[in-house]
Amino acid sequence: MSHHHGHNGPLSPSERADALEEEKMHEMERIITKSTIGYLMEGQVTYDTAPGMKAKHPGKFFLMGEDPRLPRMPEKPTLVDYFRNRFASTAHLLQSANHALKGGQPEKVVLACLLHDIAVVSFIRCDHGYWGAQMIEPYVDEEIAWAIKTHQALRFFPDESVGYGYPDLYKGFFGPDYRPENYIVDEYQRARKHKWYMTSRLICLNDIYSFDPNAKVELDDFVDIIGRNFRQPKEGLGLDSSPSAHMWRTILWPTRFL
């Protein structure tokens, strides 16, 4: 491995990963680039330029479709296909939905629980309630999207009337002095007066903060509920012309050049 930039001694795990990545890229037919946000998350304000990448991989073209390193998706993907092939982890979502189902909640609350953190497991953590709501807004009842957006704020504020306290988990995560930003406080205050407040609050109540790692819940148990409450576009999720189709396409083809 000594050919890497005159490196002496063993490579660190991240250098080894980079070297492996580089090797994989050379084997591939297409040039795969990283988005600016991928670099920002590593603390770098940069991006892959076309001339730079072409010089690095002479004679190759940029990837403009599916990434061969990811699981293949069908021609007309459904929400269930994204769950199976693009969501990094579904245990928490399935357990939350199961909790709501066992508690006799209406199907739309069960679906809201099943989808409440989809942004985290497929896309991005920051402002996950807002991203998740926007991703599904064209395909579900307005109430479901609103509840998912708003759970991001509500989870920080207790509501003793339904037995919801501030999660102990958060004290450990964010420290005892953490105070939510003003936009979160404002969202909470607006939500308190909203007609769908309780739908969003139910997401918090079913958001299992200390879930059982051994509980096995199958996605198959929720396929019918999805079918009844999620409007699957006939062209495939992400290949339709809805206002959020592009978000699903980004998850479908995250390394597409443009």
What descriptive keywords fit this protein?
258 residues, mainly alpha, Hypothetical protein af1432, globular
Give a short overview:
This protein is an all-alpha fold and 258 residues long. It is built from 14 helices and two strands. Helices cover 48% and strands 2% of the residues.
Compile the SSE list and pairings:
Blueprint (H helix, E strand, L loop, with lengths): L12 H15 L2 E2 L4 H5 L9 H7 L4 E2 L16 H7 L5 H12 L4 H9 L2 H5 L5 H9 L5 H13 L13 H7 L7 H11 L4 H10 L16 H7 L15 H8 L6
Parallel strand pairs: 1-2
Helix pairs in contact: 5-6, 6-9, 8-9, 9-11, 9-12
Q: Could you say what the CATH topology of the largest domain is called?
A: Hypothetical protein af1432
> What would the average pLDDT be, to the nearest integer?
91
Write down the CATH class of the largest domain. Answer: Mainly Alpha
Number of individual domains? 2
Alpha carbon gyration radius? 21 Å
Secondary structure tally: strands: 2
Estimate the strand proportion: under 5%
Helix content: 40-55%
Largest sheet: 2 strands, parallel
Along the chain, the helix and strand elements come as HEHHEHHHHHHHHHHH
> Would you identify the CATH architecture of the largest domain?
Orthogonal Bundle
Shape: globular
